[in-house]
């Protein structure tokens, strides 16, 4: 008997995160960001989702599909430890892991079984646009929430930093259509509050100009005096 099993994604998650850089490191940190799970052919019978609307949150199991080709390593250097100390991959939430599976609890905004394909609208995910979804399960507070659990190196959410906008960047955001870029300003604030720079730079002064991609926009900022300042917002590859 073979020890290998094949898995077929049941859907795909559409998110504003067009690249890995600056995606929050855990779910729930950017509640302003909305995602859409579209059920895949073969799993698009609305019956699969019937009753899910009774829950406020779901567990998503998904593939770190953009890392699969790079394989995995037994130890990793978590951002929480400044990117220097090594721990076992199974003692971490690293994306470079055996089988490349991720799991996140996210909020349900709506369950739309009448659309074709059926969709689940979610909030606060930490997933790249196009992430294959392997499974969806309801989050059950009495069993899944353990308030006294030990959180190891991640007992508390990381400290946030403040975010400012240059006048021109703010004006541009305000001119963009809300239907295409829902909550854009708030998403930028919540993403940059997490200080998405590489771990070894966290909270340190730094003169570099950074660019992240949200939706089809390039968003540039720099870090100064403990604060992230958004300098420009422009269509991708402009
Ligand atoms: N909450 C999940 C878990 O614990 O399994 C994910 C944690 S992981 C540290 C979150 C990071 O995964 C994000 O910041 C992003 O860089 C990365 N990521 C998200 N979707 C991905 C994908 N489809 N392929 C590769 N990396 C991805």
TrEMBL record:
Q: Which keywords does this chain's UniProt record carry?
A: S-adenosyl-L-methionine
- Give every TsaA-like domain span: 7-148
Show the GO MF annotations: tRNA (L-threonylcarbamoyladenosine(37)-C2) methyltransferase activity
InterPro entries per the record? TrmO-like_N, TrmO_C, YaeB-like, YaeB-like_sf, YaeB_N_sf
Q: Does the keyword S-adenosyl-L-methionine apply?
A: yes
Keyword S-adenosyl-L-methionine among record annotations: yes
CDD domains tied to this protein: UPF0066
Q: Which Pfam families match?
A: TrmO_C (PF18389), TrmO_N (PF01980)
| Similarity annotation | Belongs to the tRNA methyltransferase O family.
Protein name as annotated: tRNA (N6-threonylcarbamoyladenosine(37)-N6)-methyltransferase TrmO
Q: What organism, scientifically named, is this protein from?
A: Paraferrimonas sedimenticola
């Amino acid at each position: 008997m073979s020890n290998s099993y094949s898995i077929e994604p049941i859907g795909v998650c559409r998110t504003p995160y067009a690249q890995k850089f600056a995606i929050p490191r855990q779910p729930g940190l950017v509640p302003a960001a909305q995602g859409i799970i579209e059920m895949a052919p073969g799993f698009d019978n609305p019956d699969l989702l019937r009753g899910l609307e009774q829950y406020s949150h779901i567990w998503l199991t998904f593939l770190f599909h953009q890392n699969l080709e790079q394989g995995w390593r037994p130890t990793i250097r978590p951002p929480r430890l400044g990117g220097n100390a090594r721990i076992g991959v199974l003692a971490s939430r690293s994306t470079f892991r055996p089988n490349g599976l991720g799991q996140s609890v996210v909020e349900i905004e709506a369950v739309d079984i009448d659309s074709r394909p059926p969709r689940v609208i979610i909030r606060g995910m930490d997933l790249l646009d196009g992430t294959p979804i392997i499974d969806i399960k309801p989050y059950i507070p009495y069993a899944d929430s353990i308030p006294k659990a030990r959180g190891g190196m991640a007992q508390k959410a990381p400290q946030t930093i403040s975010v400012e906008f240059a006048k021109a960047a703010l004006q541009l955001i305000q001119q963009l259509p809300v239907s295409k870029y829902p909550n854009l300003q708030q998403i930028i604030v919540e993403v940059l509050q997490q200080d998405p720079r590489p771990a070894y730079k966290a909270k340190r002064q730094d003169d570099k100009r950074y660019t992240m991609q949200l939706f089809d926009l390039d968003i540039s900022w720099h870090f100064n005096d403990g604060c992230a300042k958004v300098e420009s917002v422009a269509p991708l590859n402009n």
